């Protein structure tokens, strides 16, 4: 349920209503929008009569039920206003959201050694990326495949961060590693395979680094939003959704089916920012540029693209990785569409 306050409602009145709702055993959450303040209520609201709440104050404009099963994640919870996730990086704050320029995340699938990660960081930064991605802990289908260098790779990410000034995005697979990961990561990735690892979702929800939540490969949009709801309900409001392709019947030509329809769909359902990952979405580097441009045209808030200095030698996901040169060229190509939709950063890399 949400309580929509009138424009210009006095702060003291909002506080009084908050207190009253708390006395009723509810957990009110104040959401400050661009124009209005909304008080969100979650929990046992089924028996509440909206009219009774409406009577609390003449400053209350409306009391509405949130119809969706995902409450905090829903666009209704913010009374239709898109949200933003602002991430602190060594080069300043980078905002993700519909009212902000597109954010570029690039880097290898896995952190392999210091030289390659530092070089990739410098190259993608020079091309215009805001974040370096790279896995220290890798979820691999085969237990015999390269599993990531683990904790030592976190140190290499720290070195790349220091050398480039880029923000860092890396995946957590096990809640036990969360603290060490949070020391270097500016955004913590929950991968497709863990999208419904509810205990992990609760743990990333209980810490304060923003979370990039990848869509499970067979997850419906509602299941994905419910996974985001776990993180929000645990207290972390900073969730970024990431579409990375889903399993469909045809895997002969592309690794996954990149579902770009989630862009208008999620933007109509949630205030959370959305990222597209065309690398896992297609599995082939030659398809990444077209899908990146389509994602920008369709309204993505960010792109996450795998880049490796020598894709043929990559320890994971080489076939879908762009070279730094190709990434650089792609950024130029994307800028045409980005400018056409009014979402291209004035200043690439460092914002703020
Ligand atoms: C990755 O980002 O390298 C990764 C493993 O992604 P996903 O969870 O989408 O497969
Ligand atoms: Mn990968």
Please indicate the percent range of residues in DSSP E strands (runs of 2 or more): 15-25%
Shape: elongated
**How much is the radius of gyration in Å?**
21 Å
CATH topology of the largest domain: TIM Barrel
Description:
This protein has two domains: 2-65, Phospho-2-dehydro-3-deoxyheptonate aldolase, domain 1 (Alpha-Beta Plaits); 84-348, Aldolase class I (TIM Barrel, Alpha-Beta Barrel). Helices cover 32% and strands 19% of the residues. The strands form three sheets. It has an eight-stranded parallel barrel, surrounded by seven helices. The protein has a four-stranded antiparallel β-sheet with strand order 2-3-1-4. Strands 5-6 form a two-stranded antiparallel ribbon. Strand 2 (27-32) and strand 3 (37-42) form a beta hairpin. The chain is built from eleven helices and 14 strands. The chain has helices at 11-23, 50-54, 114-127, 151-164, 178-184, 198-205, 221-233, 262-269, 278-282, 288-297, 324-340; strands spanning 2-5, 27-32, 37-42, 60-64, 84-89, 92-97, 103-107, 131-133, 167-172, 187-190, 211-214, 239-243, 274-276, 302-306. The protein is α/β, with parallel strands linked by helices and 352 residues long. The two termini are 36 Å apart. The structure holds phosphoenolpyruvate and manganese (II) ion (MN). Manganese (II) ion binds at residues 109, 280, 306, 316-317.
């Amino acid at each position: 349920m949400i309580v929509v306050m009138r424009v210009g409602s006095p702060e003291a009145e909002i506080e009084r209503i908050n207190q009253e709702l708390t006395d009723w055993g509810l957990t009110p959450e104040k959401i400050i929008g661009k124009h209005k303040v909304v008080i969100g209520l979650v929990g046992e609201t089924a028996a509440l009569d909206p009219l009774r709440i409406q009577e609390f104050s003449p400053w209350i404009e409306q009391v509405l039920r949130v119809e969706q099963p995902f409450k905090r994640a829903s666009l209704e919870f913010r009374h239709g206003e898109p949200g933003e996730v602002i991430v602190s990086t060594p080069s300043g704050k980078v905002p993700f959201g519909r009212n902000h320029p597109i954010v570029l995340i690039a880097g290898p699938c896995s952190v392999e050694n210091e030289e390659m990660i530092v070089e990739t960081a410098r190259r993608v930064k020079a091309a215009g990326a805001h974040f370096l991605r790279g896995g220290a802990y890798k979820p691999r289908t085969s237990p015999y495949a390269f599993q990531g260098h683990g904790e030592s790779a976190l140190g290499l990410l720290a070195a790349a961060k220091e050398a480039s000034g880029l923000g860092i995005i890396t995946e957590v697979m096990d809640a036990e590693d969360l603290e060490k990961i949070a020391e270097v990561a500016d955004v913590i990735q929950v991968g497709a395979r863990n999208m419904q690892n509810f205990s992990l979702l609760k743990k990333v929800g209980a810490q304060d680094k923003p979370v990039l939540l990848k869509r499970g490969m067979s997850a419906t949009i509602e299941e994905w939003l419910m996974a985001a709801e776990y993180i929000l309900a645990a207290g972390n409001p900073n969730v970024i959704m990431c579409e990375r392709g889903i399993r469909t019947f045809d895997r002969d030509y592309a690794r996954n089916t990149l579902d770009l329809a989630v862009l208008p769909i999620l933007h109509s359902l949630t205030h959370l920012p959305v990222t597209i990952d065309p690398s896992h979405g297609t599995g082939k580097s030659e398809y990444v540029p077209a899908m990146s441009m389509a994602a920008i045209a369709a309204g993505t808030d960010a792109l996450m693209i795998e880049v490796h200095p020598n894709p043929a030698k990559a320890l994971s996901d080489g076939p879908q990785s762009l070279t730094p040169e190709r990434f650089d060229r792609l950024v130029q190509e994307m800028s045409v569409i980005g400018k056409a939709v009014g979402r291209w950063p004035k200043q690439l890399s460092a914002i703020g």
